[in-house]
Amino acid sequence: MQIAVVSLFPEMFGAVSEHGVTGRAVGQGLVTFGHHNPRDYTDDRHRTVDDRPFGGGPGMVMKIAPLQQAIAAARAQLAPVARVIYLSPQGTRFDHAKALELAQAQSLILVAGRYEGVDERLLESEIDEELSIGDYVLSGGELAAMVVVDAVIRQLPGVLGHELSALEDSFADGLLDCPHYTRPEVYQGRAVPDVLLSGDHERIRRWRLKQALGRTQQRRPDLLEGRTLTAEEQELLAL
Ligand code: ADE
C-alpha cells in the first residue's frame, strides 16, 4: 500500500513510520510512506499557509492553493486511484469496519488540517471522504491521521506475525478483548485465573469468549446490539 500525508508537521509521522509494527511494515516495503508540506507550495516571502476567515471570527483558515498543490504532488507520486481523506471532527466516525475497507485501497492521501480548518472549497474539489476519530477536538489532524494509518497498516497481509493475527484483535469479531496474563502466576497476592493454567484448550477458549462477551455487555452494550449472538455466545452470556 502507498500512503502519503499532507501536513505542516510531517516529522510527527515518524511516530508511526519509524516505530513498532507500522515502522517495520514500512521498513519491509509492505507500505511506502511519503509526506508533502503545504508550506513548500507557497510563493510569498513569509510562506503563508493561513489567512483570516471571510465573515470574521476568531482563528485562521488554511488557504486552498498550498494544500491543493501539496495534494497534487502526492497524487503525482501515487497510483492515480489514490483515495484522498481529510481528518476533522466533522467527518464520519472512523471505526474497525472503515479500517478494513481502507486496507483494500492501493493508495491513500491523508490531509491533516491546522487552525480552524481548511477552506471549504478544498473539500469540494479534492477530498473524497472526511473522517473523525471521535467526538473531541484535537489541535490538528496529524494525530487523527496517525490513528488511521496505524489501524489500517495492521490489517495489511503480512504485517502482523501469525502469532499475533489481526483476526485476534479486539473488534475483529465485534467484541471487546478478553483479559490477558503472563508470569508470574501470583503477583502481590493476585493469582492468574486457574483455567488459564489448566492446559484445557476448549475450556480456555470458552472462558475467554465468556469474558469478552461479559465485558462487551457491561462496557459497550451498543456493540452487542449491532450483532447477532451465536447459540454458544447466548449460552455463555446466560451462565
Ligand atoms: N482534527 C481535530 N480533531 C479531530 C478529530 N476528532 N478527528 C479527526 N480529525 C481531527
From TrEMBL:
The keyword S-adenosyl-L-methionine applies. It is an enzyme of class 2 (transferase). Its EC number is 2.1.1.228. Keywords: Cytoplasm, Methyltransferase, S-adenosyl-L-methionine, Transferase, tRNA processing. Belongs to the RNA methyltransferase TrmD family. PANTHER family: TRNA (GUANINE-N(1)-)-METHYLTRANSFERASE. Specifically methylates guanosine-37 in various tRNAs. This is tRNA (guanine-N(1)-)-methyltransferase. It comes from Kineobactrum salinum. The lineage of its organism: Bacteria, Pseudomonadati, Pseudomonadota, Gammaproteobacteria, Cellvibrionales.
